[in-house]
Every structure is written in C-alpha cells, then in structure tokens.
Amino acid sequence: MTRPNLPKRRSDGQPLIVSEQRRKELGGSFASAQAAAEAGEYDALRPRYPEQAVKDLLALVRFRAGYDFQHEAFPRVVEFGAGTGIFTRQLLAAGARVHAVEPSAPMLEILLETSREFGSDSTVHGHCASYEETGLPGACADLVVAAQAWHWFDPAHAQTEAARLLKPHGTLALIWNYLDTSDSTVHRLTRIMRAGDVYRPDWRPSLNPELFSPASSTEYRWKRTLKVTEILRYATTLSSWLSADDVERAKRRTNLEDFLLRERGLAPEDSVVLPQITALHMSTR
Predict the structure, then answer these.
(1) Are 80 and 155 in contact, with CB atoms under 8 Å apart?
(2) What is the DSSP string of 30-97?
(3) What phi, psi does 164 have (nearest 5°)?
C-alpha cells in the first residue's frame, strides 16, 4: 500500500506559500476577486470550528486578563482577516466583544448581517481594513486572533500590530481547520482541489520572543460530512480556485467529478465523511 505524500515541516521562516508574490496573489484573491455571491458560498461551505476550541481559548483569555466570570465575562477581541464571520459568530455566541478586521467588503457585509443574531451593535464592530493598519487604538484587546488567515499575512508586520493592540498579558491565538490527509479520500481531494489547508503536525508559528511567549498548541480531531454537490461547491471557495483562469477551473471540476461520481461511484446527493483536524496555537503578550 502506497502511503500518501507527507507534508514537510514548516515554520514562519519556511511558510506554506514560499513565494511572497504568490502569497499576496492568493491572499488578495479574497478581497479583489470575490463577488457577493462567492463570499456567500464561502460562508455556507467553509467549516465551523469545534466549540471546545472556542471554549478553551476564551477560558484562557479570561484567566490571563483576570476577568471575574460573574461580573466581567466579555473579553475584547480583535480578529484579523475575519472573512464572512464564521469564527466571529462563534466568539460572539461565547460572550466576546469583537472588532472584526476584514479587507473584503463583500465578506465584511455578510459578517455584519449574520452576526446580528449573535450580538448587537455594541458587541461586534466591522472594519474594512487590513491587519497591517487596523486603525484601532493601542492596548484595546484581551485577544487578537486569526482564524484560517495567518498564512496570508507577513508574520513580522502582523505580530507588531497584534502586540500594539493587546493589553499586557493579552493573548495572540492562531487557529486553522485542516483536512486530514491521512484519510485516502481526503488526500485525493486535496490534490485535485489544490487545497492548502493541509495539517502539518510539527508546524508551530515562529513568534518574535521580544513580543510573545512561545506558542502552546492544542489539536482537535473531528469529522465533517458533505454531499458530493457541496464538495464541488466547497472547491470554488479556495484561493487556488479564485486565482485560477477558466480553463484551469474547468479542468479541476472535471477531475473532481471523475473521482467522486465515476471512480467512487457516488451520486450527487450522496454524503462523504471528511476527517478534520483543528489546530489552536496560543501565545502571551
């Protein structure tokens, strides 16, 4: 039995996207290439985060910030690259107050629309800006978090801004949902879709020791079920799809259909279980 190709160990010094130009091209595709409908698909098809990860994160933030659970249970959060608010809504539901920073106007619009049932105008604020220049005052946050976004940032610039925004003993948290490529079906799908959300067990964020403590990391394993039609739609939410031309997109969709419908013999409404791994990295200012 042939083992799948194993991902190489990476650090911020050796990022997932080695080329700076390619990183900017892929990351910028969400802000420049997405229409409102595409942003809506992103929100509908991208996975949520394990509730336990959210609880663990906010419990640590409250502890470090010295919050009294009965009187001050509302940590103040700045979220870099908040997207359509997938993680934002989970933070709000858990009792946080969030400043959501997102450069894509269509994504930010969805974030604000969908966050109303989880918070109010006083608990969520949207900022159409980049992580480099948030415009927010210094020492305003107990937590700065990036969910599925840190790999698009320049680590040095992002850390400098995060450190400026955090209160003393504040927390920097980086969280990713990954497809678990130890599963043969998932491994094949990631290769066809050119998905970058692949777990690297030894990867840790390389943080400036003058700004942050070494990161502690926690792993959460879970499963997600999507219909074949949803997998085809999910593929169109990836940066590699948004930055591809029409010829490459058609080829990729054909390859997905060949694998799922013909090789696997699935029907469009059949379900596929996709093992996932969520990695949470936390550091102290």
Answers:
(1) no
(2) HHHS--HHHHHHHHHHS----HHHHHHHHHHHHHHHT--TTT----EEEEET-TTSHHHHHHHHTT-E
(3) -65, -40
Cβ atoms within 10 Å, residue 32? 12
Distance of CA 176 to the CA centre of its chain: 5
Q: Which amino acid is at 145?
A: V
In sequence order, which residues have a C-beta less than 8 Å from that of residue 110 and are 6 or more positions away?
36, 39, 40, 43, 84, 85
- Residue 9 in domain: no
- pTM for the whole structure: 0.86
Number of domains present in the structure of the chain: 1
Q: Measuring CA to CA, which residue among 201, 279, 182, 230 is closest to residue 46?
A: 230
8-state DSSP, 51: H
Q: Which residues make beta-bridge pairs with 280?
A: 175, 218
For 220-250, what is each residue's pLDDT tens digit?
Answer: 999 999 999 999 999 999 988 988 999 999 9
What is the four-CA torsion angle of 75, 276, 204, 161, rounded to 10 degrees? Answer: -40
Q: Can you read off the two tokens belonging to residue 242? A: 């948004």
- Whether residue 8 is contained in a domain is answered as no
